[in-house]
User: Which sequence fits this backbone?
């Protein structure tokens, strides 16, 4: 296997994982809504903003980031998008209020749009439109991640939170 060929596959895997993070994010939030309401004590209006803020910003910035990717480079935009998305995900996980969680979800939408738009085009150019459609089609990847995201949320968020609450009540 040549180095060029190997690098192309590594790039495809990285792009696939980055796009999958975007898909998993929306699923995790939907699974986490009851815990979010309980933990943060937010209203149903705020819950709707938590769910929709990401999608609203994500969809509205797709064309802009496609244009910026053409000007500044797809790889650079995707790497910045991954950093923005990861940073805002940490902020969302640590948000003590509904308002901060909504703000973090808005920023996640920016990062998600930076990841998604340019890379669908890059895959289409490199691997053909059928692969780009497969990677970009949420209906194919979403069911695989619903169970995984629910289990991950339970292990990474709910169980540690319960342990912290239990240890705080003991002392």
Assistant:
């Amino acid at each position: 296997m040549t180095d060029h060929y190997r690098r192309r596959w590594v790039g495809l895997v990285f792009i696939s994982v980055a796009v999958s993070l975007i898909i998993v994010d929306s699923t995790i939030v939907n699974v986490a809504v009851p815990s979010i309401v309980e933990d943060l004590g937010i209203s149903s209006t705020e819950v709707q903003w938590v769910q929709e803020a990401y999608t609203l910003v994500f969809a509205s910035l797709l064309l802009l980031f496609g244009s910026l990717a053409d000007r500044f480079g797809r790889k650079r935009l995707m790497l910045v998008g991954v950093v923005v998305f990861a940073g805002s995900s940490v902020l969302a996980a640590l948000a003590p209020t509904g308002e901060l969680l909504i703000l973090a979800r808005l920023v996640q939408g920016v990062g998600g749009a930076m990841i998604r738009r340019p890379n669908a085009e890059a895959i289409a150019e490199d691997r053909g439109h059928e692969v780009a459609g497969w990677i970009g089609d949420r209906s194919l990847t979403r069911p695989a991640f619903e169970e995984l995201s629910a289990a991950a949320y339970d292990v990474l968020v709910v169980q540690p939170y319960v342990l912290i609450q239990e240890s705080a009540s003991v002392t």
About this structure: Residues 128-132 have pLDDT under 50 and may be disordered.
